[in-house]
Amino acid sequence: MDNDIYIPINCGLHSEYELAIMHKTRVTIKWESPENSEHSDTVIPVDLIIKNNQEFLKTINSDNVINEIRLDKILQFTRPRKKLK
Fold first, then answer.
1. CA 64 to chain centre
2. Do 34 and 2 touch, CB atoms closer than 8 A?
3. C-alpha separations of 77 from 3, 5, 16, 69 in Å
4. Phi then psi for 75, rounded to 5 degrees?
């Protein structure tokens, strides 16, 4: 368990995560683990959850691995660009 202090994220980012969940959008996320190592994966965000007064993004990757990423540890969140007509 990560014992460092949780820093709430800005509302705009939170909305981005909610939209990706609602639209079942595949995104690329880069984050820092509780062990301070960086990870990157392409995932589908499925839920936002709260544990111990900390917010997490619950994701599932292409291998059906479920992960819970603490929101303030997300370093990059990239949604696919819309194609122009």
1. 16
2. yes
3. 23, 21, 9, 12
4. -95, -30
Amino acid at 61: N
Q: Name the pTM for this structure.
A: 0.87
Answer yes or no: CATH 2.30.30.100 is held by domain 11-78.
yes
pLDDT, block means (10 residues), the chain with 85 residues: 80 94 94 92 96 96 95 92 63
Domain boundaries, the chain: 11-78
Give the contacts of 33 (CB within 8 A, at least 6 positions apart): 39, 73
Rg (CA), the chain: 13
